[in-house]
Write a structure and sequence with these properties.
The structure holds 2 protein chains of 2 kinds. By secondary structure, chain A is of the alpha+beta class. Chain A has 2 domains: 60 residues, Winged helix-like DNA-binding domain superfamily/Winged helix DNA-binding domain (Arc Repressor Mutant, subunit A, Orthogonal Bundle), CATH 1.10.10.10; 97 residues, Orthogonal Bundle (Arc Repressor Mutant, subunit A), CATH 1.10.10. In chain A, 58% of the residues lie in helices and 17% in strands. In chain A, the strands form 2 sheets. Chain A has a 3-stranded antiparallel β-sheet with strand order 1-3-2, with helices on both faces. In chain A, strands 4-6-5 form a 3-stranded antiparallel β-sheet. The model of chain A has no long low-confidence stretch (mean pLDDT 89). By secondary structure, chain B is mainly α. Chain B has one domain. The chains are: A alpha+beta, B mainly alpha. Chains A and B meet through helix 9 of A and helix 1 and helix 2 of B.
């Protein structure tokens, strides 16, 4: 019981922690952890989402946030943009230049991140800058463990290719 | 024999590209990805028809059908570049 409370506390403190990371952090065996997690999931205290090759664990009440976060990090370019924005507010042009991608591609991804509420946009003088609007620690935790498959990486390249075609908005 | 092999490879590659387009569409809901998905599926269909016509037991002329499919594939490719 004590073990289960410890697991619950850790997931609550670190939403988006992976099964492997949790096992490592608490020093619990795989089978033991699986048993406790199954119990916690059945009791509705935690839930998990499988994305790429990893299963992320979240506490109850985090459903909407988890959905937003996982959609936000689902493409390679968005992950790079989010990491870049952790260094501070940036304009679309700065992001495009620092990542070596086209501005229409950045524009598309920023639009998606805005819709998801992951970034906010502000006007500073003549520039429009984007700031991160989510917990950086959770984002880093999710991105660090994210392992996209080959198909997903190819699809990401296709998305970037398609969004780079056409005029900048 | 080599002709059939080339047809099979083309079909396989078209289906792979269709799969990638499908994942890209599911992730992004970009219409061009949907056009590409349809284009690659039609290309695979065209090659299937061509492959079948190579077999001696099919005697019908498939030129018109494959011609129409070719136009459709190219039209969808243009659309994927044009319509955002």
């Amino acid at each position: 019981m004590e073990r289960r409370s410890e697991i619950l506390r850790t997931i609550g403190a670190k939403p988006g922690i992976t099964f492997r990371e949790l096992a490592r952090e608490l020093g619990i065996g795989i089978g033991d952890l699986q048993y406790h997690l199954r119990r916690l999931e059945r009791e509705g205290k935690v839930f998990s989402r499988k994305v790429g090759k990893r299963r992320y664990l979240f506490p109850r009440g985090f459903e909407e946030e988890a959905q937003r976060l996982l959609i936000a990090i689902s493409t390679g370019t968005r992950r790079k943009i989010l990491l870049r924005l952790m260094e501070g507010p940036m304009s679309q042009k700065e992001i495009a230049e620092s990542l070596g991608i086209s501005q229409p591609t950045v524009s598309y991804h920023m639009g998606e991140l805005l819709k998801l509420g992951m970034v906010k946009v502000e006007r500073r003088g003549k520039n429009v800058v984007y700031t991160l609007e989510c917990d950086p620690e959770t984002v880093i935790r999710l991105i660090r463990e994210y392992r996209p498959g080959l198909w997903e990486r190819l699809a990401d390249s296709l998305i970037d290719l398609l969004t780079s075609v056409g005029d900048e908005k | 024999m080599i002709e059939m092999l080339l047809v099979a490879v083309t079909i396989a590659l078209s289906l792979i590209l269709a799969g990638i387009s499908f994942i890209a569409y599911r992730k992004s809901h970009l219409r061009p990805a949907l056009y590409l998905l349809m284009a690659f599926l039609l290309l695979a269909l065209k090659k299937v028809i061509e492959g079948l016509s190579l077999a001696s037991w099919i005697e019908r002329d498939v030129g018109i059908i494959t011609g129409i499919l070719e136009v459709l594939v190219l039209g969808l490719l243009v659309l994927s570049l044009w319509k955002r």
